[in-house]
Structure formats: structure tokens, C-alpha cells
Amino acid sequence: MRTGLAVAMLLCPLASAQPALAQPKVNVEQSSADSLTAVPKEELAVSGGFYVPAYSSVAMSQGKLRVDFSVTLSIHNASETQALVVKRIAYFDTAGKQVESYLKAPVALKPLATVSIFIPTDDVRGGTGANFLVDWAATGEIAEPAVEALMVGGVANAHYAFISQGRPTRTAGKK
């Protein structure tokens, strides 16, 4: 009995060190229902996009140690008056291969509302050079949204958290 317990204790860290398989699909419409409103019927005359670096894993100790991080992507509608339509939220790995697409159809954020995508620590499919592409639109001039990724993780007693700000990929303005 003691031998079996000792073997199980030794194997537990190995089991948790395996790369994660695909996580259950995030349903933005359900997880952010309070932040959403109807997509405007009017023409979406203004559009833009963001590239957001994210790090589901980071090398430390001269590359001898890999630390895995949870990632929370947040998309904030910075407008006090207009809905922000989010047309695409896509997650890519270090090699540029799309890992996940989080929207089946565009969604509209209420003024000053936020939607978030959470990737757990054990989902390391993105790797050290993971990133998101977020495309948005609006019916008219609007404050540019704030798009950020928050990474949180740790090793032993050390915990780390850092933010990566999105960078515009297209100039916001009329099509």
C-alpha cells in the first residue's frame, strides 16, 4: 500500500506536466451575456483590429525551466454612448497557427462593457509566442476599444502577473 502511494505521489507531477488538450469551447455569448446588447442593424461604417501578444508559457532560468500562465484576454468598450461590435476573437500559437476562434457570429458590447476570454494555466497550446487577433466595428465614430491580455502564473513560492496591451493592426476610421 505504501509503495503504491509513493509511486502515485511521484507520478502526479508527471501527469500535470503533459501539454493540455483542447479546452472546452468558450461561449462568449453565455459567459458575457450581461455585457452584450443587440448587434446594430445600421451599417458598420467604422472598423479596426488589434494584435495582442499573450504568453501561455515563459522560459526562465536560462531556458531550463518553463513556467505556464493563465491568460485572460479582455476587450473593453471605451465608448460611453455606442455599442462596440466585436467581429472576431482568434487565438494563435507561436508558429502562427490558429488554435481557437471564439465567436460564431459578431457580438455587440454595451457602452463601457467588457468581454473576456480565459485560457487556463494547463492549456499551453499557445506557447511562448501566443497571440490574439481581435476585429471590431461600430456604426460611427467611437472611442477605440482597450484590448489587453493578463497573464498570471507562478513556480514554487514566486508568483508573476503581467499585462500585454493590444496594438492596432488597422487604422480606425471609415471603410
Written description of the protein model:
- The chain is mainly beta and about 180 residues long.
- Helix content is about 10%, strand content about 45%.
- It is built from two helices and twelve strands.
- Strands 1, 2, 5, 6, 7, 9 and 12 form a seven-stranded antiparallel β-sheet that branches. Strands 3, 4, 8, 10 and 11 form a five-stranded antiparallel β-sheet that branches.
- Strand 5 (about 85-90) and strand 6 form a beta hairpin.
Number of helices: 2
Largest sheet: 7 strands, antiparallel
* Poorly predicted sequence stretches spanning 5 or more consecutive residues: 1-23
SSE ordering = HHEEEEEEEEEEEE
Strand segment count: 12
- Which structural class best describes the helix and strand composition? mainly beta
Query: What integer is the average pLDDT?
Result: 86
Radius of gyration: 19 Å
Helix content: 10-25%
Shape: elongated
* Estimated share of beta-strand residues: over 45%
- State the end-to-end CA separation: 70 Å
Can you give me a brief rundown of this structure?
By secondary structure, the protein is mainly β. It has helices at residues 2-16, 28-31, and strands at residues 36-37, 46-53, 57-60, 65-76, 84-92, 98-101, 107-109, 114-119, 131-138, 146-155, 158-165, 167-174.
Write the layout of secondary structure elements.
Blueprint: H1 2-16, H2 28-31, E1 36-37, E2 46-53, E3 57-60, E4 65-76, E5 84-92, E6 98-101, E7 107-109, E8 114-119, E9 131-138, E10 146-155, E11 158-165, E12 167-174
Antiparallel strand pairs: 1-7, 2-9, 2-12, 3-4, 4-8, 4-10, 5-6, 5-7, 5-9, 10-11
